[in-house]
Amino acid sequence: MSQPARPAGTATAWAGINIALVKYWGKRDTARNLPAVSSLSLTLAEMGTRTTVTFDPSLTADVFELDGAVRDDPRVVALLDGIRGLRRVERHARVVSRNHVPTASGLASSASGAAALAAAAWAATGGDLAAARADRAFIELVRRGSGSAPRSLYGGLVELDRDSGGVRPVLSAGAWDLRMVVARLARGPKTTSSREGMARTAATSPFYPAWVGSHPADMVEAREAIEGRDLPRLGAVMERSTYKMHAAMLGADPPLRYWNGRTLDALDRVQALRAAGVGAWATMDAGPHVKVLCAADDAEAVAAALAEVAAPGDVTVASAGPGALIEP
Ligand code: 2P0
Questions:
Q1: Which of the four, 186, 223, 300, 323, has the lowest number of CB atoms within 10 Å?
Q2: Are 195 and 299 in contact (CB under 8 A)?
Q3: Which of 174, 197, 227 is the last residue of a domain?
């Protein structure tokens, strides 16, 4: 439950981006943004969003600044409205947000953005973030902001449950020394938003029911692989999940193809690494970039292979990171 509101103030939060190993694609309730499938992700340490929220009585409207530019973003206002409702605060807010991604990655994230905004706004009202994580209404708000955002509230491996829409930590960042090597393979914004892409896939792809129907078995297998710290098994189920998701997208009408030629070149490199005995497995989201899961010891070899495909400086080695936190 929400705590009684204390005087409004200011707070700064950090949230890392998260990459899904077992993917979320499709919704069972668009109003509440409930997913059609569960998902399992890894929160990263080196890439994320830092956001300061200040509830200011002199403001007559919310002001949102992202990476130095003032923006109109209805999702930001909706999230702030939700926090104001839960915390019984009426003031408008000044929001200053910065995406911290190494120049290499260029992967701005709606997930870390929504998680950092919600955490900072909650804390700026005097709320405790640990209490927020246990508050279903708070999780609901974050999920409406971005379906994958609740996963960034926790560190390491995290599961978002289809049925409850809730989120739970599976394995802390320090418990398994994994790496995600991120290859940025294009510039500029994606062509079709995830929201639109999911709706189109669900409405038109003949493969969508198979995607949803075969998904629970992947979750079970991923959980078992994590429990046994079995990286080849986790990598295999991760690849299967991403290929099935992209197959469902490709079957949409009109088709949704997020990959480019370099995506395939990077996938070839990952296959060659495995043939050479390096444990490396690929995943892709709603874009052409390739992210490769591997053990810490193999990260250098993986990064070198991806550097043959990506532009100089466009490969980043990321490690598992903490969940959203409030900075002093
Ligand atoms: C994921 N993606 O599990 C999947 C895989 C992209 C591909 O969640 O509409 O910003 O806000 O719920 O979470 C990206 O979409 O979409 C996403 P909404 P979201 O990471």
A1: 300
A2: no
A3: 174
- CB contact at 8 A, 22 and 57: no
168 and 314 co-located in one domain: no
Question: What would the DSSP string read from start to end of 295-316?
Answer: EGGGHHHHHHHHHTTSPTT-EE
Q: Which residue's CA lies nearest to atom 4 of ligand 1? A: 24
State the CATH number of the domain containing residue 298: 3.30.70.890
Against a cut of 0.90, is the pTM above it? yes
Model confidence at 8: pLDDT above 90 = no
Q: In what order do the strands lie in the sheet with 178-183?
A: 280-283, 290-295, 178-183, 315-319
Instruction: Read off the pLDDT of residues 215-245 as tens digits, 9 standing for 90 and up.
Output: 999 999 999 999 999 999 999 999 999 999 9
Are 162 and 204 in the same domain? Answer: no
* Cα–Cα distances in angstroms (integers) from residue 36 to residues 1, 77, 151, 198, 309, in the given order: 26, 26, 16, 10, 34
Pocket of ligand 1 (CB under 6 A): 20, 23-25, 33, 39, 110-111, 146-148, 194-195, 285-286
Nearest protein Cα to ligand 1, atom 7: 285
Q: What is the C-alpha R_g of the chain?
A: 19
Going by their DSSP bridges, the two strands 69-71 and 167-171 should be labelled as unpaired
Q: Are 161 and 253 within 8 A, CB to CB?
A: no
